Amino acid sequence: MGIDNQPKARGTWVRILLIIAGTLSVGLGILGIFVPVLPATPFLLLVAACYARSSERFYGWLLNNKWFGNYIRSYLERKGVPLKVKVLTITLLWITIGSSVAFAVQSFVIRLILVLIAIGVSLHILCIRTLKQ
After folding, report:
1. So what's the pLDDT on residue 1?
2. How far is CA 107 from each of CA 14, 56, 98, 104, 112, rounded to the nearest angstrom?
3. Cβ-count burial of 120 within 10 angstroms (0-12 exposed, 13-18 middle, 19+ buried)?
4. Dihedral sign (CA 63, 67, 68, 74)
5. Contact assessment for residue 72 and residue 45, using Cβ atoms and an 8 Å cutoff
6. Is 60 exceeded by the pLDDT of residue 6?
7. Phi, psi of 65 (to 5 degrees)
8. Which of 28, 81, 109, 110 has its CA 20 to 30 A from that of 133?
9. What is the pLDDT of residues 80-124, one digit of tens each?
10. Is the dihedral of CA 28, 29, 31, 32 positive or negative?
11. pLDDT at residue 36, as a whole number
12. DSSP string covering 21-45, please?
């Protein structure tokens, strides 16, 4: 399963643009690991799509990466996410957004938007199958 059976990009420029887009997405995905409002998973999946179509070497690096390779493979293969990762993610999400709502944001509308984002992300994480280890 996954996206590794997708057709490869044909032109050199298209491949280069996909590698650049994938590399920028790696940076955003890593940033998303530490900034709960910026979700890491969509960026890491975008990286996988870009690299799968442009570079077998970069795609292999991504899937074998010690920090997020297992996570991406499990997600692409619909195996799930470990319970520990779910708990940590939701905890950090609510600590960060709760702190922002309590101390950094004055606008009621922005506070409400942040809480709704936290609820949406939490529901998404809870809906992902829990990976048995």
Report:
1. 44
2. 43, 47, 14, 10, 9
3. exposed
4. positive
5. yes
6. no
7. -65, 135
8. 28
9. 888 887 888 888 889 989 999 999 999 999 999 999 989 998 998
10. positive
11. 67
12. HHHHHHHHHHHHHH-TTS-HHHHHH
Q: For residue 59, how far is the Cα from the chain centroid?
A: 16
Residues 88 and 125 sit within 8 Å (Cβ to Cβ): no
Tokens of 6: 């997708």
Which residues lie closer than 8 Å to 98 by C-beta, 6 or more apart? none
Neighbours of 39 (CB within 10 A): 20
Q: What is the mean pLDDT of the chain?
A: 86
Residue 10 has phi, psi (to 5 degrees) of -90, -55
The pLDDT value given to residue 98: 92
Residue 46: both structure tokens together:
């975008």
Would you state the structure tokens that stand for residue 125, as one six-digit string?
């994480």
Q: Which two tokens stand for residue 18?
A: 């996909």
